[in-house]
Design a protein that fits this description.
- The structure holds 2 protein chains of 2 kinds.
- Chain A contains 1 helix and 11 strands.
- In chain A, the strands form 3 sheets. In chain A, strands 1-2-9-6-7 form a 5-stranded antiparallel sheet.
- The longest helix of chain B is centred in the last third of the chain and has 21 residues.
- The radius of gyration of chain B is 20 Å and the shape is globular.
- Classes of the chains: A mainly beta, B alpha/beta.
- Chains A and B meet through strand 3 of A and helix 1 and helix 3 of B.
Chain lengths: 130, 339
């Protein structure tokens, strides 16, 4: 139902820290029709070429200043993921994605106010790393 | 002269907003240009950092309301009872969150809050003094799938009657008056892989004057045996389960609640080429409300946007305008009958 919101096109790229490629990042809109505090993000999962990345390697941010692991995010109630603004997801991985084409999958699962089961959205994109 | 007034919920234009084809000012401008009288907003959707938006955000809201002369009628409020993964919010936490929402509604010049379905009844009494102080009414949404047969809804209604304050009431979503399953929903599910036989089965339930929810409840909450046999994959299951969110109730179900009804969500899934809504008969609904002397707003709430097939154009603006046109025509007809 909200699959169309997942994984913003052309948002996947490697990122650098201290001059070194420290991983890759991607952006997504929310799988819901309103904003929620980050504590209500139930789970984020990323796959590269069919392989799940380790949960601990994922960091998320709404302002690109403060980054939280998925475990930390469970208590983050004052940072809101706004409707219409992206969540930036970073996967820490030395060297990032290798040059060439990759199939990158993203699952975004959020808890909502009144629907008993979390809302999940999924999108797989073919990503070109130059 | 009919006392029924119309407005548009900005929820209707959510995809335009999400994908930045329209910002809040574009939406105000569009509605004002199309002679819309009032608006309804989900503060959590279009006002950043709700319920504590910045002074800049509030100043921009004031500017838009003053520039485009649209009356802000209703704020759709949610209660994040599952804010934390490992526990439900306490009663005090729930009440505190809603106090902030009441204050924000007042600041936005809004006198009515729609509380989302499943908001617990225990919030009513502790909120009353705040409702009075800030002159904001709280009203629980009666939504298809979570309507009169749901215990939490009934608990809220019982408490509402007991407290008996003019500041507590109900908002009715007309999705409880679906005479046919929304075709856009069935088509979307078909695209996901739902078999036509399952769709036919559900359509047939509506054709017989019932709805999936009623049929499942009669089967102790399960699919009937003949439906179970038809369900072959996840897409069939999703469709059959989701279909219980469209109810087919008689209008008379509202008779006993009319004194408490503060607002209506005039839900629409698909305006057809004949200028009518595919699932609901708004002429009949307005006739009923007119006869009952309803004096509040009815709010266009387009929800077909979530059933637009990938790659197909979003038609939120067109659907909203077509629906408003239908409502104005029906109200005008009701007024002309009175002369």
């Amino acid at each position: 139902m909200f699959d169309n919101n997942v994984f913003i096109e052309n948002s996947c790229k490697n990122f650098e820290l201290d001059g070194k490629v420290a991983g890759f990042e991607l952006k997504t809109n929310i799988t819901y029709y309103r904003s929620i505090p980050l504590s209500m993000v139930n789970d984020i999962r990323v796959q590269v070429d069919g392989e799940e990345v380790p949960r601990e390697s994922i960091l998320c941010s709404v302002d690109e200043i403060d980054w939280f692991t998925l475990d930390e995010m469970e208590t983050v109630t004052t940072y809101k993921w706004e409707y219409g603004e992206p969540l930036i997801i970073r996967v820490q991985k030395e060297g990032g994605l290798t040059k060439g084409t990759h199939e990158v999958g993203l699952d975004v699962i959020t808890r909502t106010a009144y629907i008993p089961v979390p809302l999940a959205g999924r999108k797989v994109r073919t990503v070109e790393i130059a | 002269m009919s006392k029924i007034k119309t407005c548009v919920s900005l929820y209707s234009l959510q995809d335009e907003y999400l994908n930045k084809r329209m910002n809040l000012e574009d939406i105000f401008k569009f509605l004002a240009e199309n002679s819309v009288e009032g608006i309804e907003i989900l503060p959590d959707q279009m006002l950043h950092n709700t319920p504590h938006p910045s002074e800049e955000t509030l100043a921009e809201w004031d500017r838009l309301v003053n520039t485009y002369k649209l009356k802000p009628v209703c704020a759709d409020v949610f209660l994040n009872t599952n804010l934390y993964k490992n526990r439900e919010l306490t009663k005090r936490e729930c009440v505190d969150l809603l106090i902030d929402e009441i204050k924000l509604a007042n600041r936005l010049g809004i006198r009515l809050i729609r509380l989302v379905s499943m908001v617990p009844a225990f919030v009513i009494e502790p909120l009353i003094s705040y409702c009075e102080k800030y002159d904001v009414t709280i009203a629980l949404e009666i939504h298809a799938g979570l309507a009169f047969d749901v215990p939490k809804t009934q608990e809220f209604i019982d408490e509402m009657r007991r407290v008996n304050s003019p500041y507590v009431g109900l908002v009715i979503d007309t999705g409880i008056f679906c005479r046919r399953l929304p075709r856009v929903m069935a088509n979307y599910c078909k695209h996901l892989g739902t078999n036509q036989k399952v769709i036919d089965y559900i359509n047939d339930i509506f054709a017989k004057g019932s709805d999936p929810r009623k049929v499942y409840l009669e089967n102790c909450g399960n699919f009937p045996e003949d439906l179970k046999k038809l369900v072959k994959n996840d897409a069939d299951l999703f469709f059959a389960q989701f279909a219980d969110g469209y109810e087919n109730l008689p209008y008379s179900v509202l008779d006993e609640y009319m004194p408490y009804i503060k607002h209506f969500h005039f839900k629409l899934f698909e305006m057809t080429e004949t200028g009518e809504e595919y699932s609901m008969n708004f002429k009949e609904i307005l006739q009923y409300l007119h006869e009952k002397g309803y004096e509040g707003y009815v709010s266009t709430e387009y929800e077909g946007n979530r059933w637009v097939l990938p790659g197909h154009p979003m038609v939120e603006k067109e659907q909203v305008i077509a629906h408003q046109k239908l409502l104005h025509k029906c109200i005008k007809e009701l007024e002309s009958l009175e002369v």
